[in-house]
Specification:
Blueprint lengths: L3 E5 L2 H10 L6 E5 L5 E2 L8 E2 L5 E2 L2 E2 L4 H12 L3 E4 L5 H14 L5 E2 L7 H8 L7 H28 L10 H17 L4 E10 L6 E5 L6 H13 L2 E13 L7 H12 L3 H13 L15 H15 L37 H16 L5 E12 L7 E10 L24 E13 L8 H11 L7 H10 L3 E4 L2 E4 L1 H13 L6 H15 L5 H18 L25 E6 L2 E6 L8 E3 L12 E2 L6 E7 L2 E6 L11 E3 L11 H8 L3 E5 L6 E7 L2 E6 L2 E4 L10 H9 L2 H4 L6
Parallel strand pairs: 1-2, 1-7, 7-8
Antiparallel strand pairs: 3-6, 4-5, 9-10, 9-14, 10-13, 11-12, 11-14, 12-13, 15-16, 17-18, 18-19, 20-21, 21-22, 22-23, 24-25, 25-26, 26-27
Helix pairs in contact: 3-5, 5-15, 5-16, 6-14, 8-9, 8-12, 9-11
């Protein structure tokens, strides 16, 4: 019995697709289960550079039987159709299948959604394998291998065995480290926020905030004094109508970002869930940077919006490409059937589907209309900076009807007019510190990579996973924090190979790969332009010193003092190799192999006659009395204030820091010792386990009488207040 053989990537698709094809012919559908061949991971013959960067492909372990079974089916088929995924990687897999199976004239079938109409149309309109797309994907793999392996090899020699670099992975790590260095350099500044509860007559009170955030406490006190005794009057009322337009349908990066924000999904999880929805036929292909919608999709959305919300809510919209080199020919990520507002087999799938459905429907609806109100209030005719309050409320929902979670909260401002007198109920001040820039979240890094042109839709989740798997970043909640190892690797690459991990280099390669996919750029020249200067630069770096002088121990660094393993750490004095028994052992070397030079003793501690040292620890610099040894197992220590430069600490400073904790005397009511000290959350006084934080009092100067007053205050008045 004759038949046509259609080969897909995923077994989950096969049965559904075979069912759709029953009434148009005899088809058998089988799956390759992803890639069948690849460049070997560790082999000198992986790429033949002299022959023109020709990759050597090998069958992946475990795929021999898959190829054998498909080959047997293909030998009996009248025609073989390759229906791998509709992107460059899918095109490459189709070519590999053709080569591995020895196919003479295979046809390429492309569909963007697993629906009956899409599948039938695709198989009835096959094409040839696009060798330009295949070559562009091949060039990506070869470039990744050349850049990654050559740089990694040098890192093994000069930093530590087992570390790695990558063409896209390393620029991403560099971006994370650049932000981390901003955080380290950041010096907080104190400022005050001044707010006031006010009302107009007997109306409900509302909160206004001073438009300036003073840095000077004297200015704060002045504003507070004038505010308490002055007259408050409405200076100006501004009302502005504005529109909020819907966002474009999802592409890969925006889906990952929004799923992270609203659902708490990591990029990797988002792609896994989206893959299942695609294979079940619920959404279109999920790796895309195109915001286009097909005419069929637009017709479905129009019918859905008019039926559910009314004709007045529909507005046809077209969105431009997200990037100038949007490489995928298919559509935005959208539902395949808009009548299904709920789809998926698990809560995660249903949640993501709902997100995609609402975003796509909203993209073809009218603008939302909002009213923004700002009330400005003056105190004593401008004797202080103005106070103000901003409000916003939606007056016409528009597209927000379909995507209400994008609405935000309405904030209503009481109705007041210019020159109205305002009653002060209470004015308050709150001291704060400026905050350093936030570390990247997974969603934030995806957005940044997309903005800089680094990577493509299919690579974002893989980049973050690689950084995490390599131990270059740690994930704390949604935040990505670089590890000491990540710091060292990135710093090494930035110092010696800055050009190869720059935004411009990485983005230019992506553009060149796009040009190759269009048949506008040559394979050999593209790779040669990267390989030749890189090989030359790596050869020139062979003589740079190793990052440790521990000699023969190039795989496992050992502490020269106690013999234990060492690891790379970061301290105030820079990066250094530190004993894993730290702080029990003081063995440590700087990254260039020289011993850390200890600062000379500040002087002698009067109570014991021991020297006082300034040292660097895991939690910052500190002063210590004497050296740590068998006789002095727990030397007296005191942490330096955050704003104190260790090199500027005097003997007087050290004695002051070491004076804590100190006993101020006995509490007159309980007879317990009253102690002043500094803890994890700042300075405090304590007696018999009863703590009170010091807000304004100096912990080094506070006396017993004042400490007792603080301790006798009801605790509820001095406890931590929840942030509103």
């Amino acid at each position: 019995m004759s038949y046509k053989l259609l080969i897909v990537e995923s077994p989950a698709k096969a049965k559904t697709i075979e069912k759709y094809l029953r009434d148009i012919g005899d088809y058998k559908v089988t799956a390759s289960v992803g890639h069948v061949r690849d460049i070997p991971k560790s082999s000198k013959k992986a790429i033949d550079i002299e022959a023109g960067f020709v990759p050597h492909y090998e069958t992946l372990p475990g795929k021999e039987k898959v190829i054998k079974d498909i080959k047997e089916l293909a030998s009996k088929a009248d025609e073989v159709l390759l229906a791998t995924d509709p992107d460059r990687e899918g095109e490459a897999i189709a070519w590999h299948l053709s080569e591995a199976l020895g196919l003479k004239n295979p046809k390429r079938v492309v569909f963007n959604e697993i629906t009956e109409d899409a599948i039938k149309e695709a198989v009835q309109n096959p094409r040839q394998i696009d060798l330009n797309l295949k070559t562009a994907q091949e060039a990506r793999r070869v470039l990744d291998r050349i850049v990654g392996y050559d740089l990694s090899g040098l890192i093994w020699k000069k930093v530590r065995y087992g570390l790695s670099a990558g063409r896209v992975q390393s620029p991403a790590l560099r971006i994370i480290m650049e932000r981390e260095r901003e955080i380290r350099k950041f010096k907080p500044e104190e400022f005050w926020i001044i707010t006031a509860d006010v009302s107009k007559g007997k109306n409900d009170p509302f909160l206004v905030t001073c438009v300036e955030e003073p840095r000077d406490k004297k200015e704060v006190d002045r504003i507070m004094e004038v505010g308490k005794n002055g007259s408050w009057k409405v200076k100006e009322v501004k009302e502005t109508k504005a529109k909020r337009s819907p966002k474009a349908p999802f592409i890969t990066s925006t889906l990952q970002q929004t799923a992270s924000t609203r659902l708490g999904y990591s990029p990797a999880k988002t792609m896994q869930v989206a893959q299942k929805l695609y294979e079940q036929g619920h959404i279109t292909y999920m790796r895309t940077d195109s915001t286009n919608l097909s005419k069929n999709a637009q017709d479905q959305i129009r019918t859905f919006v008019i039926k559910k919300y009314g004709n007045s809510f529909y507005e046809s919209r077209k969105f431009g490409k997200k990037s100038k080199n949007a490489q995928e020919a298919h559509e935005a990520i959208r539902p395949t059937n808009f009548n299904s507002t709920r789809a998926g087999n698990t809560p995660e799938q249903r949640n993501l589907y709902g997100l995609i459905h609402s975003r796509t429907a909203a993209s073809q609806m009218i603008d939302a209309q909002v009213l923004r109100t700002k009330v400005i209030i003056s105190v004593n005719n401008g004797e202080t900076p103005d106070f103000s309050v901003n409000g916003q409320r939606v007056i016409d929902e528009g597209w927000l009807k379909a995507d209400p979670k994008a609405r935000g909260e309405d904030t209503q401002v009481p109705e007041v007019k210019q020159d109205d007198s305002i009653d002060l109920i209470e004015i308050k001040e709150e001291g704060k510190e400026t905050q350093p820039p936030n570390r990247y979240t997974e969603a934030g890094l995806v957005k940044e990579l997309e903005k800089r042109g680094i990577g493509r839709p299919s690579t974002y989740a893989a980049i973050i996973k690689t950084l995490n798997d390599r131990g270059y970043v740690s994930k704390e909640g949604k935040t990505l924090t670089p590890t000491d190892t990540g710091d060292v690797v990135s710093s090494f690459l930035e110092e010696h190979f800055k050009n190869y991990i720059s935004d411009s280099f990485t983005a230019e390669i992506e553009e060149e790969l796009d040009q190759m996919a269009e048949g506008e750029r040559e394979y050999i020249k593209t790779i040669k332009d990267v390989y030749d200067p890189l090989a030359k630069d790596i050869a020139a770096k062979e003589d740079i010193p190793k990052l440790t002088s521990l000699g023969k121990a190039d795989k496992k660094h050992k502490c020269p003092k106690c013999g234990s393993l060492m690891e790379i750490k970061l301290g105030k004095v820079g990066k250094f190799l530190s004993c894993l028994k730290y702080p029990k052992c003081d063995g440590a070397l700087t990254i260039d192999g020289e011993e850390i030079k200890e600062r000379p003793p500040l002087g002698v501690y009067p109570e014991t006659g021991q020297d006082i040292y300034i040292l660097d620890g895991r939690f910052g610099p500190y002063v210590q009395v004497g050296k740590k040894d068998k006789e002095n197992k727990k030397p007296k220590r005191a942490t330096l204030p955050k704003d104190k430069n260790p090199d500027e600490v005097t003997m007087e400073d050290a004695l002051k820091y070491l004076s804590l904790p100190k006993i101020l005397g006995q509490h007159p009511k309980t007879g317990n010792d009253v102690i002043a000290s500094i803890g994890r959350f700042g300075p405090y006084v304590m007696q018999d386990g009863d703590f009170r934080s010091l807000k304004t009092d100096n912990v080094y100067e506070i006396e017993l009488k004042r400490a007792v007053e603080i301790l006798d205050e009801p605790k509820r008045k001095r406890g931590f207040q929840k942030k509103k």
